[in-house]
Amino acid sequence: MNNRDKFIEIYKSCITREGADKFLQYLCEKTDFFEAPASTRFHGAYEGGLLEHSLNVYECLCDFVKHSRFCQKHGFSFDEESLAIAALLHDVCKTNFYKTEMRNVKKNGVWESVPYYTIEDNLPYGHGEKSVYIISGFMRLTRDEAFAIRYHMGFSGTEEANQVGRALEMFPLAFALCMADMEASYYIEGSPVK
Fold first, then answer.
1. Domain residues of the chain, as ranges?
2. What angle do CA 36, 153, 174 make, to 5 degrees?
3. In degrees, to the nearest 5, what angle opens at C-alpha 126 toward C-alphas 125 and 132?
4. 43-65 pLDDT per residue, tens
């Protein structure tokens, strides 16, 4: 099964609220979600990187919720739909966001034209909040889901640290999604120092 089929299967089996079908149709027909990179030069900086990252975050989040001492110790549990929404859709702000350009690079002493990604932001609305905004146009998010998606970058975002800390404290799904996003970005897709 390819990543697109895997995403759609998880999405359809877990996300059933009103508007979910229209949002999936939007992702499939009006965006480059399934082909877009996850970044210009860091994790997932290749075609399909955003899709792969979203699936990795989903797997990391499900694993974190199921096996972490954090969730067990504090009695946190989350329904399957919230986990799927938060993980699979946290970076929809990156759809229709990157474009491909060409540049010259010297390889083995010979100049070669190679593609690279640049940013073309036609909806400059921040990062996490843009994802919440886009999703909310199709389906209603719970407060936990909205805050999780909004603050999934944790302290690596541009928000004031006390605001991030408060959100992670108030919304355990935000903390769990932040952990899953970092695991996927740095340890699954990145190249950790060993």
1. 3-97+126-188
2. 115
3. 80
4. 888 999 999 999 999 999 999 99
HEC assignment per residue over the chain: CCHHHHHHHHHHHHCCCCCHHHHHHHHHHHCCCCCCCCCCCCCCCCCCHHHHHHHHHHHHHHHHHHHCHHHHHHCCCCCHHHHHHHHHHCCHHHCCCEEEEEEEEEECCEEEEEEEEEECCCCCCCCHHHHHHHHHCCCCCCHHHHHHHHCCCHHHCCCCHHHHHHHHHHCHHHHHHHHHHHHHHHHHCCCCCC
Band (pLDDT 50/70/90 cuts) for residue 27 is: very high
* Radius of gyration for the alpha carbons in the chain, expressed in angstroms and rounded: 17
